[in-house]
Amino acid sequence: MPNNHKFFFNYQDILTIIFFINIFIFLTNKNTYTLIVLIVSFMLFIISIIYNLRQNKRINFEDINLEWGKPSSKKIKDISKIKSFFDIFLKDTNDFVVDDLTWMSLDMDKIFEKINKTQSFYGSQLLYYLLRTPKLEEKEIYKRNNIIEKLRNDKNLTIMIQYYIKLYNSQGNSILFDFLWKNSYFYKQKNYYVYVFLSTSVIVFTILTLINTQKWIIFLVINIIINGFLYTKSKQLIESYINIISQINNLIFCAKKLSNLNVNSIFNEYFDLNNTIESLNGFEKYTKKLLVNNNIYRISMINDALVIFEIIKLILLREIILFHRCWTKIITFIEQIKKLYIEIAIIDSFCAIASFKDSLNYFCTPKFLFENNIYINCSQLYHPLLKNPVPYSFELNKKGFLITGSNASGKSTFIKAVGINALFSQVFGFSLAKEYSANIFKIFSVINLSDDIMNNESFFFRESKAIKNIINNLDNNKKVLCLLDEVFKGTNSHDRINTAKSLLKYLFTKNVCCIVSTHDYELTILLNNYFENYYFDEEIIDDKIKYNYKLKKGVASRSTVFHILKLLDYPEEIISELDINS
After folding, report:
1. Cα separation of 346 and 68, whole Å?
2. What is the mean pLDDT of residues 161-185?
3. Closest Cα partner for 103 from 130, 122, 141?
4. Which residue, 10, 129, 150, 278, is the most exposed by fewest CB within 10 angstroms?
5. Is the pLDDT at 579 greater than 60, yes or no?
């Protein structure tokens, strides 16, 4: 919360200082008046804390409400941490997975950033995982869309769900995930009974010092110094573990709030949230005292006057002792915590998509076809990253698409739009179109490749490897959507045309749905029996190139290249020579 106060101290700091001054005054001058002043100052101090917390909560709720139905404004600095959930579970899945090259080709990092309206780190992880694992079963796809629609149609409920998830899980780091799945935080307990002895001895020496100060004060001071040293050393060591425990507790508190909202009735086909909460009932009793102590520490870091609580904890080693008591118990709840982590992540990710879906100008529920022939029929389909997209309407029936046109005319954007919408349809059960009918596909894309100097691989070699991966994944039971941009452009024209013709004919015989862009007009003739020809073009208006980005049936005209060269004021000798050879 931004600090708008002009003074060095804010109102809460001032009330805190007044409260502790009144404690001192009351202890030195005990009477009815000082007692009343102390009680009043204490009440004001508590009210200020409650007010501050409520203000933060109110702002969080308003922020979520204002962000509803808008593309995400969050910037992701390091997507590798979010991706780590997918990387872990990739080892245990036999489902179809969008490979790294297809993900990169379709600009899915940018897509993910735009739709990532989750309120927690683990919600972001689950959303990323969903996008990398499109479903191949119609029933599962429609089940997801039904849940998303329920959340979208009950905006107030969904915002409350997002509010509680943000309220209890706003730290946004991977420490809990690393603990649960990477075993990154393993703590070996030791010296517990030494800590208990030193804590008890402080109390004993304090009592003895009150009885005989001169005799016992030195022992008390030495005991406090030792405890201070051990506390400082141990505090640094266990701080990350206390953070883990705090995040787990927050996860449980969040789950209970969501349970009160009857979220279970929406997600009951996936899990029983109430049952998971029940399985963690014994967890809180081991962590409550530890986290109360840690919260006092956090408040003392905000309000300097409360540092007295931290000093008491230091002297008694209380936090260290409580941590050792509960850590062993926590390990026994690992599987239940993992389950709750995933369940809250699913809820958060579905709410995020409901909000994103409400930001769209229009969308449709896809109709999936299970005929032998490849088929896609789209009306007004568009690309989600474009502010003012030109929509595409087309029908692909039995044949593939061969797309011609100049650079920057819109070929690659169209291919990506088809791939992204196929992915959205099979992940979320809706498409960015007014109508979308298609087979369910395994989706592969090879777009925007480059040479790999580090691995000494040429463009042609990398492209050939990527296409071979597609061939290896051909499946008689599942159709494949193959998106290729300027196929085999890394080699000479003779080899490119022959190789592309051979490859595309082969893919056609395997019932692969191919959408391919090319500058080789010869292919439009050689593959006429296997591919429909579509194109994008541009116009020269007032000596400027105007792209209309409209998908048209047929083959692009070659003459536009000459207009572009003339526009760029190429020498007439070059232009006339090209005209002669055209």
Report:
1. 18
2. 82
3. 130
4. 278
5. no
Q: Is 543 helix (H, G, I), strand (E, B) or coil?
A: coil
Residue 461's alpha-carbon distances to 50, 153, 456, in angstroms, are 64, 49, 10
> Residue 423 and residue 134: Cα distance in Å, rounded?
6
- Write phi, then psi, for 169 (nearest 5 degrees): -140, 50
Q: How far is CA 340 from the centre of its chain?
A: 17
User: CA 297 to CA 306: how far, in whole Å?
Assistant: 8
Handedness of CA 208, 209, 213, 215 (dihedral sign): positive
Q: H/E element holding 405?
A: none
pLDDT tens digits, one per residue of 37-55: 878 877 876 776 666 655 5
- Of 381, 458, 461, whose CA–CA distance to 419 is shortest? 381
Q: How far is CA 125 from the centre of its chain?
A: 5
322 Cβ neighbours under 8 A, 6+ residues apart: 289, 290, 293
CB atoms under 10 Å from CB of 101, counted, come to 20
Alpha-helical runs (H) found in 428-571? 459-472, 493-509, 521-526, 560-567
Of the candidates 377, 413, 283, 293, the residue with the CA atom closest to the CA atom of residue 335: 283
Q: For 392-442, how does the pLDDT look when each residue is reduced to its tens digit (9 = 90+)?
A: 999 999 999 999 998 888 999 999 999 999 999 999 999 999 999 999 999
Residue by residue, DSSP assigns 348-359 as: HHHHHHHHHHTT
Structure confidence by residue, pLDDT tens digits, 89-126: 887 778 899 999 999 999 999 999 999 999 999 999 99
